[in-house]
């Protein structure tokens, strides 16, 4: 820019000088300049003696004027050329400056656009940072709130547990408080802990009803403690009936009632869907206990070694469909364990090694379907394999055996009765193989044999009463000495039908 500042005045100066030179030439050509040029430059005298005159004088002047005209013309042409070149250079400089200006403007626009993009990115980053800050703040507040709640829950839990060791009224308050903590528990682990404590309370040493002849104060204390225990069971049942997607539901949690004494109450309609539920070694005493309408749909529910001594343990209308339910080694010494109208769809129910010695186990009206169970599990099956029937009754009266497996292999029938009156065999496999019959009454009166299999192969002892005589249905398998030789041999040994020997067969 500094160089351009002096080039323009110089061009004007050259132009002025050229114009002045042109004017001087014109003055010289048409004024005394030509004569001066002839006299002083060419050395030709025009004045005084010897001066050229006339035509010669005019020719010398014309020649000088021609030379001067050529010089003037050259000077004017040089000035014009220089001026034109200067204007062209100026135009180029102007164009270049304009282009540079346009480039600079374009760069400015790009810079402005870049600035807008940077501003937008900065705004987005600022907004994201603000959102992260808000989220972290909310998370911090939430965590602080959760910590505060957990602290409150911890205090509530401690206070509730402390109340379980007080007077009956305080214990009731502690039971409800623990259930409330479980309902508000933010984690499954805390909920399970609350349930574990309630189950542990039921496992504490406890004596059944002391009887009417006991001290009145002892009776009142017993009844108060019994009410606390039944409240625990009632709350467990309520939470096991809640839908599994309810946050307060206890479905799927473990219940450990091992060796507990249960003399009333129940878990009617409870849903056992997962987890492990243990009544192993439990004693069912007193008035009774109810699982009526319960759903055994998954997990493991064990009554291994349990003792059924109450008037009634009621499984009426229960559904066994996928769970593993075990009564292995259980004892039925008195009262009734009723599975009346229950459905055995899939999964397994095992009474293997159980002892029936005075009690009644009733499957009256039950339905054995034997649908395929979950992967890795057999179809629905009820097993009494290795069980001992010493007294009492096991009744399948009016049962419908349309599938699955009823397993009585190696069972010992030494007393009491096993009743299949009016039962319908339409697809199940009822297996008495290698069983021993030394005195118990087996009654198949009015039973129908359509399909499936009733197999006594390898059985020992007296032939059961009321088995079809002649012809023996193809679905019935008998050892050789049980096959009737004569129609009158249908009831060997003069065994008395169980309806006569045991009128209360249900």
Overall geometry: rod-shaped
Mean pLDDT comes to 82
List the quaternary state of the chains.
single chain
Rg over CA atoms: 60 Å
Fraction of residues in H or I helices: 40-55%
Main sheet summary: 14 strands, parallel
Residue share in β-strands = 15-25%
The helix-and-strand class reads: alpha/beta
Intertermini distance? 121 Å
- Distinct helical segment count: 7
The count of DSSP E runs of length 2 or more, i.e. the number of strands, is 28
For the record, the count of structural domains works out to 3
Task: Describe the protein in words.
This is Pentapeptide repeat protein. Keywords: Membrane, Transmembrane, Transmembrane helix. Residues 460-506 are annotated as: Disordered. It comes from Actinocorallia herbida. The chain is rod-shaped. Helix 3 (54-163) runs antiparallel to helix 4 (168-184) and helix 4 (168-184) packs antiparallel against helix 5 (188-203). The chain folds into three domains: 2-121; 164-252; 257-484, no CATH class. The model is unreliable at 488-505 (pLDDT under 50). The strands form two sheets. Strands 2, 5, 6, 9, 10, 12, 13, 15, 18, 21, 22, 24, 25 and 27 form a 14-stranded parallel beta sheet that branches. The chain has 506 residues and is α/β, with parallel strands linked by helices. It has helices at residues 2-30, 33-42, 54-163, 168-184, 188-203, 216-241, 498-501, and strands at 255-256, 261-262, 271-272, 276-278, 283-284, 289-290, 295-296, 300-302, 307-308, 312-314, 319-326, 331-332, 336-338, 343-350, 355-362, 367-368, 381-383, 388-395, 400-401, 405-407, 412-413, 417-419, 424-431, 436-437, 441-443, 448-455, 460-461, 476-477. It is built from seven helices and 28 strands. The longest helix has 110 residues, at 54-163.
